[in-house]
Amino acid sequence: MSQIQSVATVSPSSIESVKSEVTNEFLTFRLGAEEYGVDILKVQEIRGYDAITQIANAPVFVKGVINLRGVIVPIVDMRIKFGLGEAEYDQFTVVIILNVAGRVVGIVVDAVSDVISLEQEQLRPTPGMGSIIDTEYIMGLGTLDERMLILIDIEKLMASSAMGLIESGFN
Amino acid sequence: MSADLEQFYEIFFEESSELLADMEACLLRLDVNSPDLEDLNAIFRAAHSIKGGAGTFGFTDMTEMTHMLETLLDKLRKGELEVRSEMIDAFLKAGDVIKDQLAGHRGEGQADPKLAEEVCEELKRLCEETQTLSSESVKSVETKSEEIPISESISSTSEIISEQLSPTDDSANETYRIEFNGSDLAESVLTHLMSNLRSLGNLDNLTSETGKGHYQLRLRTNKSEEDIWETLAFVVDPGNLKIEKESTEKKPEVKSHHVEEPKQHSSITADYGFFPGAPAAPIETPSAGQQPAENSKSDSQIASKSQTKATAAAPASETSSIRVSVEKVDQMINLVGELVITQAMLAQTASQLDPVVFEKLLSGLNQLERNTRDLQESVMSIRMMPISFVFSRYPRVVRDLAAKLNKRVELRTIGENTELDKGLIEKIADPLTHLVRNSLDHGIEVAEKRIAAGKPAQGTITLSAFHQGGSIVIEVSDDGAGLNREKILEKARERGLPVHDGMTDQEVWLLIFEAGFSTAEKITDVSGRGVGMDVVKRNIQSMGGRIDIESALGVGTRMSIRLPLTLAILDGLSVAVGDQMFIVPLNNITESLQPSAEDIKTVSGEGRLVQVRGEYLPVIALHEIFNLRPKVTDVHRGILVILEAENQKAALFVDDLIGQHQVVIKSLESNYRRVQGVSGATIMGDGKVALILDTAALVMASQQEFV
Questions:
Q1: Is B82 annotated as catalytic?
Q2: Does any domain span residue B695?
Q3: Out of A54, B27, B583, B653, which could bridge B572 as a Cys pair, Cβ 3.0 to 4.6 Å?
Q4: Statement to judge: residues B371 and B408 lie in one domain
Q5: Tell me, what's the ipTM?
Q6: Nearest CA-CA distance, residue B326 and chain A, Å
């Protein structure tokens, strides 16, 4: 709990947090036409999408839970959450298993691209914009040649009450 | 105190707690009129072991207290004084003080030094009475009863040693050689150890320079071997410790006869240079000092005696159990759970193979299944503990409470060896204590009343435990006054509870679990405030159990607690709705049936009811609650599972029944959140997750809809 709280209270605004952190490697994935990146250290593994068990009365983007070697792991479909791309499930659907806020959570994405390192100068602050994702959860924007990476503060996002993954009302 | 010694504290604390518990059990078992010498010895040994350990760690308050205990006990076991019940009381009190002191050293709470002093005084007083009585018969205090029969020790009147009181007394008449491997011990620990040993008597360090951590000591002391053992045992690995008795001969002429003897004797240890240049050390004569009466016996016989003693000490140090942290066991249980799932997965895949072509593979898989099941059973049994761990505390509770309330009560326990999960053992203790106290206070009447009612003056409280199906039943019964239906109803009305005269006895009895409910005429400090029974019920329900009451006015009351065997595994019925599977805990199911269409009724066009055996039950459609697409929507085409929870019934409407399973409970909350209507999750044979239904929540929700 305290861990989550500290994440919430520290909340360094946009680019400063990227600068202050040493980890500059990101796992990039696609959601629709957009490219996103998450801190590689938060990623536990990447696996396929199968054998999911629905959970009653959960938000639409919470697809359910899976058995990850004996651990019950909730799966969130980022495409539904962010309203990007078609939420189709086939043998190519990819789930990124994340280790955030002391929990294990899986996110469904369109495709995983690769792992890239970003130098300080490749990082840009997030401009304020009316977007479905609160800019609070975007660490910054990364530029790689012509591509733009949206770097998500995945830990903060997953712990947020908007995701409804963690029991609310305990702080 | 050196920091290095601290690593041994925990061992000492745990061992002492166990010893204290043993001591208490022995004390309570002790019959004042005909004390069992074995029990007295056991109590003595327990006190003695604690003293030894406390001495090693420098807990002087505990040493003092145990010493007083020991002195008195020693006289008792030698028959110098009759055991009286006030002594037992004093012993029990002393035990409590030591417990407090132990907790104090552990850093939990503070022992009351005043109380300790009082108890000490009382023990001393009892002890002095003893001395006046025993002044005519001079006996050896030095003997160890398990070695020498009392009759023999009495004959050795030549040696009266005031044990423990003057450790450096010249009359030190036993010489021990101590060998141990101390290479893994820190310098400060060793120094401390040496000073402890020195305080026992004259210590010679025979350790050779090249010994490489192998220590050899010679201790001349009036203490018993046990004392030395206790001093060392907490610090030195018992496997590396060897204590052997050598004896001092009081008469010099005998000495010369025995000069050659120790050489043979020491040949085992000669490799270590045990006697560097001291072949004729005068103190090397075997055990004559131990048994002066046997001086005339042949040397060989005596030598063999001392050797048997050395070997006899060794098995005592070997442990038949090991301490393992619960986390490790839980991890193992988890892993075995995984193995079972993997095995089930393999079995499912293999069932599609041609049994002729894959004969060997299939027989191998069969064997795997058997092995996995055995493994699972044995791993689960690690967590199982006999319920005597809980029951053993009640003789004391009942004894103290009965004395306080001036009642005569006998406690009987049945089925102490019934095993249940360690987690449950810890949780059941408090509710059970409450029920026992309740029985004693409200159930059992005072002797006069009992006699007037034609019952024996002594009341009986029976604690019993047994297995029934997949659960364990623990019963607390008394032959007391029983519950008074009228009185309970009257109280309930006073409190504004919804009651009527037509309620069944069962329903009336359950009222006593309401918060703040009490029919006690006067509030005592034991019970009667009406706080507790509701807590008892809540605790038991949180363990997945339930409590039932049977009672007859004037005959007695029986409270039965029914608990699942373990918290980790659940017996469940798997049901299907659409393409999803759910587990319904079996102990909440009364029956499953396929209703006929005419049994389904509606209330004001919605809210379905089903008539089952004359009762109208609300129908909970699982697909509606969980927003699923079911295969069947007509109630009479599906299956109704009748659930009972919190004494409310409801019918759960599902597509189909799949089967009965034992499922391993996994937490949904560790990575997700609580889900309404779901108490947990499990992994099925095919690797899919199935949710376990929270029947109580479902039933309660259905009730609310209809009110």
A1: no
A2: yes
A3: B583
A4: no
A5: 0.72
A6: 19
